[in-house]
Write a structure and sequence with these properties.
Structural class: alpha+beta
Largest sheet: 6 strands, antiparallel
Number of helices: 2
CATH class: Mainly Beta
Order of helices and strands: EHEEEHEEEEEEEE
Strand content: 25-35%
Shape: globular
Bound molecules: 2-oxoglutaric acid, manganese (II) ion
Length: 211
Amino acid sequence: MNGDLFGGKPAPGLIFLPGFALDDEAVLLAAAEAVAAASPFRVMAVPGGAQMSAAITNCGAAGWVSDRRGYRYQTLDPETGAAWPEMPDVFRDLAVRAAAQAGFADFTPDVCLMNRYAPGAKMGLHQDRDEADFAAPIVSVSLGLPAVFLWGGPKRTGGTVKLPLEHGDVLVWGGTERLYFHGIAPVKPGTHPILGAVRLNLTFRCALQAV
Ligand SMILES: O=C(O)CCC(=O)C(=O)O
Ligand SMILES: [Mn+2]
């Protein structure tokens, strides 16, 4: 499936499902809007004090948050003081199907982080390592403006391969690559026919429970 994706360069462990979310785009976007109406997108600070460039919100059993004290999951939205919105069924179903298609049959995510990028916004190379369960994979859904996914390796150094992502594409990674570094290059200016000048990413993980 990964074939010639990277112009012949291998991207072991990264499973690319082009257009996998397209059939569900309308229900996914309606559900995302409902989540954001209850727990609005906000820009969080990172431990060094700088602001993240993507705005975020969450749904599910807990939400990923960042502030000067560090990164963590918490069951209450610090902005509303209430529980994060429940994960919409259409979100969970899509993530379960994508993971199964990628070879992870028993994945049931308990959290979904939503990242909203305006043109120019990016996400530096990082590992997803705040979850209790690294046995579970990560499912990442791209909607709206295109972006370039940077796929590294187990160390921050060593370079990245660049994967262009379009509206409806889904990535899955796990197993020995679960902690590989990855990021998003600055989003180019543009207008998506449905979302406008926005890239929306849905990242599904098992943060609290074992699969
Ligand atoms: O926006 C993306 O595609 C990646 C997001 C990501 O890596 C994260 O939220 O940890
Ligand atoms: Mn990540």
